[in-house]
Design brief:
globular; alpha/beta; two-stranded antiparallel sheet; Rossmann fold; disordered N terminus
Length: 178
């Protein structure tokens, strides 16, 4: 269950089930995820439901960790990955992400780079030092797309670099290859 603070006002939306998505979450015509939380619908959008039902038998369940200080983005991606049959968990700080990784031992980690406190570069370096996580697939999922950032990401231990927004199909392909 998720608890999401609505940016449109002070009320809290409680007990957001993993099988639903915010009504302002859309997947555009080329499959990119766009999320703005305001209100919760009672069911997931038809495009996500059809993608989930099409993939439930063909795609193996993977353990996925999403680390992003943007809680709305992280929680939305976790909800979609859960719909697709994965065991997905979100963390909203670098330290929280390291603790979650030690506990979950994910197959794939999607890690934002531009986070306050411990940034994604520092998290990736620390992740590679944790016993059992030395070879986990770490994917940068960030708005930073310049060549210097890509080089720093590679040096820090990232396996791939994706820029936001990224299509669900690309994310799913990376998870399956895991």
């Amino acid at each position: 269950m998720y608890c999401v603070v609505c940016p449109a006002g002070p009320h809290r939306l409680r007990n957001f089930p993993a099988k639903t998505l915010p009504d302002h979450t859309t997947i555009d015509r080329i499959g990119r995820l766009h999320a703005e939380f305001y209100h919760m619908p009672t069911t997931a959008p038809a495009s996500v439901v059809s993608a989930a039902s099409a993939n439930t038998t063909a795609v193996p369940n993977r353990r996925v960790l999403v680390i992003d200080d943007n809680a709305d983005a992280a929680d939305t991606l976790v909800a979609i990955l859960s719909l697709l049959g994965h065991d997905a968990v979100a963390a909203h700080t670098g330290a929280e992400g390291l603790r979650a990784a030690e506990k979950q031992h994910p197959d794939v980690i999607f890690l934002d780079i531009g986070m306050p406190g411990m940034n994604g570069f520092e998290v990736a370096v620390a992740m590679r030092k944790i016993s059992g996580l030395e070879s986990v697939r770490i994917v940068a999922l960030t708005a930073w797309r310049d060549e210097e950032t890509r080089a720093r990401a590679k040096a820090a231990g990232f396996d791939m670099h994706l820029t936001k927004p990224t299509s669900i199909e690309v994310i799913e392909e990376i998870i399956v290859e895991g």
